[in-house]
C-alpha cells in the first residue's frame, strides 16, 4: 500500500550512525480475497476463509463475509483485526438505527454510513477493503465497493484483496464483457443481468483459480446469496443446481423479515 | 446508590481522596511535558506457546524461560496462568505486560467470584475472557500503546461441552484453530501439531481426536524441536490441560535430548582439535 509505505529516504538526508528507531506498526496484512457480483434481482457476496500473516497460515477458517440485515451482506478484507472491529461497529450502528426508526437500514444508507465511518478514521484508517452487496429498495441486486478511507461507488461487480489483480480482469471480461464483441445483429451486452447459475460458477472459478495462483487464498469459501422477495429459488435449490461438494443453508430472517432470502453456500478450496 | 454530583472544581471527593486524581480536561495547568511514553519494545520476553485440542480438552505448553535479549535471564518463570476453573492463558512476549495482565484479570475474576456468591451470576466463560482480551488488545494497539504479548486462551466451554482454543496478540489480531502456536512455534511446531491432529481427526476435524497421551507426546516432541532450534527457548517447560474437570498445570519437565552427533561436527574455522 503506497499510502503507508515509508518513502525511501534520499541519500542526502539519510541519518548517519543514528540509533535504529523501532516504531510500533499497528497494521498487518492478513491476506485472503473477497468478491461480489450483482444480478437483476439477487446479489452474490463471497470470500475465502484463510487468514494468514506472511508465509504463515494463522487459521483455515476465519470469517470475512457478514450478514448485516435481511438484504445486506458485507465482505471485509485487509487487516483482520480492523475488519472484525469495523463490522462490530457497523452492526452496532444498524441496531441503533433500528431502535430509532423501527425499520432496518436500507442498502444505500448502509453504504453511505460505511463511507462516513471509514472517513471518520481518515487519519488512522481502518486498513480494510469493504464490499457491500444486497438488495436495493427498488428490488435490484446491488454491489457497493469501498477503499479504506471511504471512497465508494455502486458497481455490477468487484473483487478485492490479495487476489484482486487475478480476479478483477476475469470479472471485467465476464461481467462487463470487456474485449468481447456481440455477434452481428444480436442485442448489445448489458452488465448485471446474468442468471444466478452463471454468476455462481464465475464466483467458484474465480476462487479456485486464485487458489491455484495465490498463496494467500485457499482453504474454504463462503458464498452469500441475497435474493429479492418473490424471486424463484429453483435456480439455486433445484435438483442438481449446486456443484459437487457444496453445502447450502438458508439464513433465517434477522428481524421480522420482508421477504428477501439469504443463502449461504460453503465449498472447500485447496489447502496447499 | 447514585452519588451526589460533585462541584465542578472541588479538590476532594466523597472519599476524601487526596490529591484528587487529575484528569486531562482541556484547561489542566500542569499537563504532561511532551508526548506520553509507551511500551515501544518488549524487554524481558517469553518465547513460543503451543496449544492443541485433544479428546475431552485442550493442552497448552510453554517453557519456563524469560529472556533479556539473548540472555537467559529468568529460568523459572511460569507462563501458564489459570483464570478461574475452566480457562488458562499461555503468554508469550513481554513479561512485565504479562504480569500487568495477570493482575488486571485476577482482579476482575475476584470481582466476578464475589458476584457469583450472592447471585445467580454466571462465571466468565473462556469465550468471555477471549472477547475481553481481544477488545483490550485492540483498544491498546489503537492507542499506539500495545500490550506486547501473544496469548493463547485455552478453556472448556461448560455450556457447549467442548474445548476452546484461541489466539490474541498485540495488534488485536484474533483467530481460533484446533492447533495453535505463537512466535517461533508457528514456524517449527505448528506443522507438526497440524500433522498429528489431522492424522486422526482428518482435515475437517470430524474424526476422533488425539488421546491425552498422544497429545502430550506430540507437545513434548514439539517442545524438544523448539529447544533444539529456538535459541531463546529452554528445555524446562510445563504443560497445562483444561478439561471439564478444570485446569491442571504440570510440574516443570525436560525433554530427553541427544547431543552425541555434536561430537563429530567440525565447523568451518581452523581445526584446532
UniProtKB/TrEMBL annotation, chain A:
It is found in: Cytoplasm; Nucleus. Pfam families: Proteasome. InterPro entries: Ntn_hydrolases_N (IPR029055), Proteasome_bsu_CS (IPR016050), Proteasome_sua/b (IPR001353), Proteasome_suB-type (IPR023333). GO terms for cellular component: cytoplasm; nucleus; proteasome core complex, beta-subunit complex. Keywords: Cytoplasm, Nucleus, Proteasome. GO terms for biological process: proteolysis involved in protein catabolic process. Component of the proteasome, a multicatalytic proteinase complex which is characterized by its ability to cleave peptides with Arg, Phe, Tyr, Leu, and Glu adjacent to the leaving group at neutral or slightly basic pH. The proteasome has an ATP-dependent proteolytic activity. Component of the proteasome complex. Belongs to the peptidase T1B family. PANTHER family: METALLOPROTEASE TLDD (PTHR32194), PROTEASOME SUBUNIT BETA TYPE-1 (PTHR32194:SF2). This is Proteasome subunit beta. It comes from Kwoniella europaea PYCC6329.
UniProtKB/TrEMBL annotation, chain B:
One of its GO terms (cellular component) is nucleus. The keyword Transmembrane helix does not apply. The keyword Cytoplasm applies. InterPro entries: Ntn_hydrolases_N, Proteasome_beta4, Proteasome_bsu_CS, Proteasome_sua/b, Proteasome_suB-type. Residues 1-42 are annotated as: Disordered. Residues 1-29 have a biased composition (Polar residues). GO terms for biological process: proteolysis involved in protein catabolic process. Keywords: Cytoplasm, Nucleus, Proteasome. It is found in: Cytoplasm; Nucleus. PANTHER family: METALLOPROTEASE TLDD (PTHR32194), PROTEASOME SUBUNIT BETA (PTHR32194:SF6). Belongs to the peptidase T1B family. Non-catalytic component of the proteasome. This is Proteasome subunit beta.
Amino acid at each position: 500500500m503506497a499510502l503507508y509505505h515509508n518513502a525511501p529516504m534520499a541519500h542526502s538526508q539519510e541519518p548517519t550512525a543514528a540509533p535504529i528507531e523501532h516504531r510500533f506498526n499497528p497494521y498487518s496484512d492478513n491476506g485472503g480475497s473477497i468478491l461480489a457480483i450483482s444480478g437483476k434481482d439477487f446479489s452474490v457476496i463471497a470470500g475465502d476463509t484463510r487468514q494468514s500473516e506472511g508465509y504463515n497460515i494463522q487459521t483455515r477458517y476465519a470469517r470475512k463475509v457478514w450478514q448485516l440485515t435481511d438484504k445486506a451482506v458485507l465482505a471485509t478484507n485487509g487487516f483482520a483485526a480492523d475488519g472484525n472491529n469495523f463490522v462490530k461497529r457497523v452492526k452496532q450502528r444498524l441496531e441503533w438505527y433500528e431502535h430509532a426508526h423501527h425499520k432496518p437500514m436500507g442498502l444505500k444508507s448502509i453504504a453511505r454510513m460505511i463511507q462516513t465511518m471509514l472517513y471518520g478514521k481518515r487519519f488512522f484508517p481502518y486498513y480494510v477493503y469493504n464490499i457491500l452487496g444486497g438488495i436495493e429498495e427498488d428490488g435490484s441486486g446491488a454491489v457497493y465497493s469501498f477503499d479504506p478511507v471511504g471512497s465508494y461507488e455502486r458497481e455490477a461487480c468487484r473483487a478485492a484483496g490479495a487476489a484482486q489483480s487475478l480476479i478483477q480482469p476475469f470479472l471485467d471480461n465476464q461481467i462487463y464483457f470487456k474485449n468481447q464483441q456481440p455477434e452481428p445483429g444480436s442485442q448489445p451486452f448489458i452488465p448485471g443481468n446474468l442468471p444466478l447459475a452463471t454468476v455462481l460458477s464465475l464466483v467458484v472459478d474465480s476462487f479456485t483459480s486464485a487458489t491455484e495462483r495465490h498463496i494467500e487464498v485457499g482453504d474454504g469459501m463462503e458464498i452469500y446469496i441475497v435474493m429479492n422477495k418473490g424471486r424463484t429459488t429453483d435456480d439455486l435449490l433445484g435438483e442438481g443446481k449446486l456443484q459437487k461438494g457444496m453445502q447450502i443453508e438458508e439464513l433465517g430472517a434477522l428481524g421480522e423479515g420482508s421477504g428477501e432470502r439469504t443463502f449461504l453456500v460453503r465449498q472447500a478450496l485447496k489447502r496447499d | 446508590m447514585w452519588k451526589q454530583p460533585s462541584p465542578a472544581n472541588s479538590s476532594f471527593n466523597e472519599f476524601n481522596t487526596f490529591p484528587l486524581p487529575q484528569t486531562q480536561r482541556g484547561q489542566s495547568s500542569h499537563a504532561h511535558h511532551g508526548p506520553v511514553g509507551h511500551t515501544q519494545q518488549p524487554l524481558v520476553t517469553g518465547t513460543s506457546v503451543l496449544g492443541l485440542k485433544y479428546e475431552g480438552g485442550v493442552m497448552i505448553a510453554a517453557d519456563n524461560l524469560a529472556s533479556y535479549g539473548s540472555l537467559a535471564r529468568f529460568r523459572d518463570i511460569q507462563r501458564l496462568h489459570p483464570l478461574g476453573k475452566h480457562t488458562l492463558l499461555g503468554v508469550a512476549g513481554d513479561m512485565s505486560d504479562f504480569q500487568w495482565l495477570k493482575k488486571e484479570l485476577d482482579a476482575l475474576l475476584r470481582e466476578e467470584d464475589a458476584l457469583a456468591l450472592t447471585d445467580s451470576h454466571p462465571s466468565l466463560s473462556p469465550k468471555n475472557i477471549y472477547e475481553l482480551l481481544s477488545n483490550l488488545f485492540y483498544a491498546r494497539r489503537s492507542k499506539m500503546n500495545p500490550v506486547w504479548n501473544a496469548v493463547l486462551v485455552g478453556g472448556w466451554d461448560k455450556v457447549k461441552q467442548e474445548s476452546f482454543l484461541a489466539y490474541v496478540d498485540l495488534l488485536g489480531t484474533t483467530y481460533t484453530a484446533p492447533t495453535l502456536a505463537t512466535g517461533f512455534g508457528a514456524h517449527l511446531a505448528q506443522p507438526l501439531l497440524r500433522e498429528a491432529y489431522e492424522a486422526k481427526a482428518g482435515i475437517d476435524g470430524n474424526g476422533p481426536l488425539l488421546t491425552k497421551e498422544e497429545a502430550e507426546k506430540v507437545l513434548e516432541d514439539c517442545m524438544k524441536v523448539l529447544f533444539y532450534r529456538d535459541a531463546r527457548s529452554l528445555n524446562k517447560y510445563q504443560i497445562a490441560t483444561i478439561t471439564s474437570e478444570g485446569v491442571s498445570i504440570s510440574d516443570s519437565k525436560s525433554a530427553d535430548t541427544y547431543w552425541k552427533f555434536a561430537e563429530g561436527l567440525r565447523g568451518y574455522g581452523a581445526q584446532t582439535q
